[in-house]
Amino acid sequence: MITGSIVALVTPMQADGSIDNPGLQQLVEWHIAEGTDGIVAVGTTGESATLDYEEHIDVVRRVVEYAAGRVPVIAGTGANSTSEAIELTRAAQGVGVQAALLVTPYYNKPPQEGLYRHYCAVAEAVDLPLVLYNVPGRTGCDMLPATVKRLSEVPNIVGLKEAKGELTRVRELLALGLPPEFALYSGDDATARESILLGFHGDISVTANVAPGLMQQMCGAALAGDSVLAAELDSRLEGLHRDLFCDPNPIPVKWALREMGRIPEGIRLPLVPLDERHRTAVRHSLEYAGVI
Q1: What is the pTM of this model?
Q2: Which of 63, 103, 163, 268 is spaced 20 to 30 Å from 56 by Cα?
Q3: Catalytic residue numbers?
Q4: Function, please (predicted)?
Q5: Among 184, 205, 160, CA closest to 31
Q6: What pLDDT sits at residue 106?
Q7: What is the DSSP string of 168-183?
Q8: Span 35-53, average pLDDT
Q9: 191 marked as binding residue
């Protein structure tokens, strides 16, 4: 089981939208040096929606190559087409990832039985650990705890990233009596500390893109049950948890990384650079966290 701070890595791009592979390698090296516990390549934060199939798998392959076994790599391979999700997951398995993260099908709003069959179909098609991903605010589809319970019984479905952002949902999941080896990850930085203290195993994080060391320390303290230290560390991150979502993700976090000199300015349409009215707040939160 992967535990701790797992970064939902951005995909660095040049101003023309082309992928910055040297920049990607530098980000991976930085995260390893800062103690990040795992990397998600080409999840939502990695602009999976606008990378084509070849780019998607190439970025995943490169992250695996750059990490060189030093940290586990999870590939984002979700889609709202079951056949596409299977194709992406098979390809990710072929380039050597440790697991795949599959968002609930978006826009078509499948019922709970549809979600169950979708994930079962992917699980049957690959021999790879799969992590479910629930983010109803973006997909328009909420995977309910009862469905998570059913899916936890599928042998290679090993975890869940829960990004509803409600501690009520966290408690509901913890009360299900899930298998002890089934990993529960927060997908909401603002409630990650409380979620881990309650019993979650880590955080798949946007904030970790800009404050990897501090996020790793905070998650580690929470996993150790040190609520005082975790709260102290998290207090430095609260502004980032808030302001990195002042515009749709990954607009603010890519602007923040550019401000830090970590990546170029590129982002793909229909996303655009951060609106000027938000920049002062994001910059102040970066300063408060001590990362610039």
Answers
A1: 0.97
A2: 163
A3: 133, 161
A4: Catalyzes the condensation of (S)-aspartate-beta-semialdehyde [(S)-ASA] and pyruvate to 4-hydroxy-tetrahydrodipicolinate (HTPA).
A5: 205
A6: 95
A7: HHHHHHHTT---TT-E
A8: 97
A9: no
